[in-house]
Amino acid sequence: MPAPVRFELLGVDTRSNARRGLLRTPHGTVETPVFMPVGTQATVKGVVPELLRACGSQMLLANTYHLALRPGEEVVRSLGGLHRFMAWDGPILTDSGGFQAFSLSDRATLTESGVAFRSHLDGSLLDLTPERAIAIQEALGADVAMVLDHCPALPAGKEAVAEATERTIRWARRCQRARTRDDQAVFGILQGGSHADLRSECAERLVEIGFDGYAIGGVSVGESPEEIRKALEVSTPHLPAHQARYLMGVGRPQDVLDAIAAGVDMFDCVLPTRNGRNATCLTRRGPVRMRNAAHKADPRPIEDGCDCPACSRFSRGYIRHLFLADEMLGPILASVHNLAFLHRLVRDAREAIGEGRYDRFRAEALEALGP
Predict the structure, then answer these.
(1) Suppose 236 and one of 70, 263, 313, 340 were both cysteines; which one would form an S-S bond, judging by CB atoms 3.0 to 4.6 Å apart?
(2) 13, 95, 143, 265: which one is catalytic?
(3) For the whole model, what pTM was predicted?
(4) How far from chain centre, in Å, is Cα 17?
(5) In Å, how far are 94, 103, 160, 206, 292 from 276, measured between CA atoms?
(6) Mean pLDDT over residues 281-288, rounded?
(7) 122 assigned to active site
(8) Sign of the dihedral defined by the CA atoms of residues 171, 177, 181, 184, in that order
């Protein structure tokens, strides 16, 4: 089966493992490292596609579980597929629903067959097997689909993590056998917690199965930044250099910078839009709380030097007013700025990698961001 998504490695920083590349997809080419905004239900909350483009978005993520429940993958297919449905003509990645087995564990029953969910909407049953997860994503028509994986809840002993890792590998084989589209990539997902032997074995066996790219799963589920770094250190050396590497669910600027240094190419997280809706804006000097009284008559933009649609037209004083007045434009502008901030961060990282100065760039950025 020909590879519908191809990763081209342009270079590696000589003083770190940071990489710069191109991810070529049926809906366009993405420069990496790349941050992907999360559009769980076929929308990045409050941000229309034109604004996503204006703030630098290249590729979006949508959610298999939520779209299967509402409106249903066949509705999306009948309306032209996910790209036309959400009016986004760029690349899209869909996760498999495996994370919902973790985050909605009170509504999920996990067996060797798959995950049986009781819908959070109406209590109806969604039986999500590896085969069903692929079928839903094929109906949605994303450029990149993810295998169904088992992400164990933390804290978990090594035996429980090993069991989840073995199940993830078995499910990955079933997902690979279930593929029918030759225009959609499928990425495998590494599990194994912070255990180097489990991570390395999982990587080797997934590479034997043969996927179009590989994701590092089982992070951003309650562990510390140090544990995230450890998981990266024991994962990336075992992944093919010529294929894309995706760290799932990570968007804190400090964690993104560390992961790029470890050789990761792709990221996604709800952090920028969730923080934006809660009046917290990301800046290179750390977060700014837009409800603070200090901004009441502040004529400055959220961040000096930012050319995003929020900063180029509106003041801190105005955006604070929007939040205090419960006007929906406040969360929209803050979300747009936060997305633009992360896109600019990875864009600057790409430039630093190309010039062989990523270590210095990262150190300066981390110092400015603060603890």
Answers:
(1) 263
(2) 95
(3) 0.97
(4) 20
(5) 23, 22, 36, 37, 14
(6) 98
(7) no
(8) positive
